[in-house]
Amino acid sequence: MDAASSAADVVVVASHGRPAAQEVLVAMEDRMHKTTERIESHVAMMQTRIHRFPRGLRGIGGDDDRYIVPSVVAIGPYHHGLPHLQEMEEVKHAAAYHFCRDAGRSPEEVYGSILFLAGDARHCYATDDEAVVRLSDAELAAMLFLDGCFLLQYMANSDEPMFAGCNLSSGQAILRDMMLLENQIPWLVLDALTGFLPVNVRHFVTEVGDKFFPNEKDSAGWIIRFQVFLMMKCRRVPAAREPLGHCQSDISYKPAHLLGLLRFSQLQSMPSDEREYQAGSSSLLSSSAVELAQIGVKLTASTATWLGDMRLRKNLVLGELSLSPLFLNDVTACWLVNMAALEACTAWDSDGFVVSSYLSVVAMLMDRKEDVHELRSKGVLRSLFSNTQTLAFFKGLSQHLRLGGRYVVVLEQIESYKRNRPVRIAAHRFLYKNYKIIATVLSIAGVIIGIFKAILALKLKTG
Q1: Phi, psi for residue 382 in degrees, rounded to 5
Q2: Sign of the alpha-carbon dihedral angle for 85, 90, 96, 98
Q3: Cβ atoms 390, 381 nearer than 8 A
Q4: Average of pLDDT values for 91-119?
Q5: What is the rounded distance in angstroms from the CA atom of residue 274 to the CA atom of residue 410?
Q6: Where are the transmembrane segments (predicted)?
């Protein structure tokens, strides 16, 4: 028997009851094909899918997953039915009634349009997720119909009867829940509903985002304006419903959901050269805010119109690291965590981690409470958290976030500053660390000089 015959026998004959090699090969090829199709389909849907919070990032979800699980209202299937969210289900039905009434359409017609989209909407979620699988198309459409009407009515007319009990606290909770990664409905649902009754969703998200991520330098005044804004969202005259085409945002951008639109609204004015900058080495040492102050790099609040601006300028004598100013409270902390989680789910490369890079740089600047104070004093950070709480929040984030390209860019700029200005840095560090002693010596010298001047003047008079 030749070698070829022996090889053929191995292919077709099973040994010890195990599948023949040919059967194994066929099964393996079939699995390879199906797995490739599934992965390619997942990648194709990556930007439009409504993701679960990444398992690797759950450490930044806060105590009891407070930045992951909604506190007052479930939007979408992932948290639908949780006991503590049932009270708002009644409000959803009232919101749907008002929406259909204001649109002059029957609930059957509006619901029917969402039912028509149920198949496409289902594919926007993890289709093997139990929370989605258990719902029929009719049940999924009913949930999306109620959730969509609730969101649009809250955006346009939060003074309606069903929101009559809204106060500052619950208003914040609704805004927080609206931007949770796992608490979203597909944009196509909102798009369909605004076809019946136009609501300027883009303008609402941009307006809210601008209030939470301000550029004003008047910190105290801004906080007061922010509190007034939230109260007005709960007790204001019904807003004019503008067609989406009239909004100020880039209408060509189709977000997957509201959280994606929030991130876009914060980054849409980011210059193209900032997006295209290629980062180099990532093996660079970080520096805290106090350490930067020691080497002559002062922190300033950026005046850029987008969140995440970070750049180091080399002035004639000193350096200047400007960062987008950030207002931090429980709501913005939640939004920042969820935007970072969204980037982890959808970013193709390091350039997609803009928010994560910004958070990583802010966290890098904080080693001690003194660093937090330095950021506050320079107007970079405005927080309702204490210094201890703020430090814990950012250091907890930094342990889990992906270090994006823009983070590396800032480290490169700091490293370049250190490398090119050793003499000025040494002189400034000496002055920074010994300024109290120097000030004391100069003060004493001033006193002594004053005494000598007085003695000299007295001698001149008596002489």
Answers
A1: -125, 120
A2: negative
A3: yes
A4: 95
A5: 12
A6: 437-458
pLDDT of 399 reads 87
Per DSSP, 321 falls in state: E
pLDDT at 157 over 60: yes
Please report which helix (H) or strand (E) contains residue 298, including its range: strand 297-301
pLDDT tens digit sequence for 274-294:
766 666 555 567 788 888 888
The torsion defined by the Cα of 191, 51, 405 and 205, in degrees rounded to 10, comes to 30
State the pLDDT confidence band at 434, using cuts at 50, 70 and 90. Answer: low
Task: Give the DSSP letter of residue 283.
Answer: -
Closest by CA to 340, choosing from 282, 400, 268, 288, is: 400
Cα separation of the two ends of the chain = 134
User: Which of 73-82, 127-136, 419-428 shows the lowest mean pLDDT across its residues?
Assistant: 419-428
CB 63 within 8 A of CB 117: no
The residues near 195 (Cβ < 8 Å, ≥ 6 apart) are 113
Degrees, nearest 5: CA angle 386-389-393: 140
Q: Which residues pair with 326 in a beta bridge?
A: 381
Cα–Cα distance for residue pair 447/269, rounded to 1 Å = 56
Give φ, ψ of 51 to 5 degrees: -90, 155
Q: Report the relative pairing of strands 310-314 and 319-323 from DSSP bridges.
A: antiparallel
Domain boundaries, given as residue ranges, for the chain: 3-44, 56-267, 284-420
Q: Which of 150, 177, 166 is nearest to 66 (CA)?
A: 177
Mean pLDDT of the chain: 81
